[in-house]
Amino acid sequence: MRRRELLAAAITAPLLGHWWPALALEASGVASPFDADTVAGLAKALAARDYVEAESALPRVLEEASYDAYRDFRYRADHALWQEEGDARFQAQFFHRGFLFRPKVDIHVVDGGQARALPFSTELFDYAPNPAPDLDDIGFAGFRLHAPLNRADYFDELCVFLGASYFRAVGRGLGYGLSARGLALGTGEPAAEEFPAFRAFWLHRPVAGSPSITIDALLDSPSVAGAFRFVVTPGEDTVFDVDARLYPRVALEKTGIAPLTSMFHFDASGRRDVDDYRPAVHDSDGLAVFTRTGEQVWRPLHNPRAIQHSGFQGEAPVGFGLMQRKRDFADFEDGEAHYERRPSAWIEPLGDWGDGEVHLVEIPTADEYHDNIVAFWRPATPLPAGQESRWRYRLYWTATHLWQPALAHIVATRIGAVPKTTRGARLIVIDLDGGPERAEALDVEVRASVGTVRNAVVHARPGGGWRVGFEYEPDGQAVAELGMRVLQQGRAVSETWLYRWQA
Question: Quick one: residue 100, left, alpha or beta (phi over 0 = left, psi -120 to 50 = alpha)?
Answer without folding.
Answer: alpha
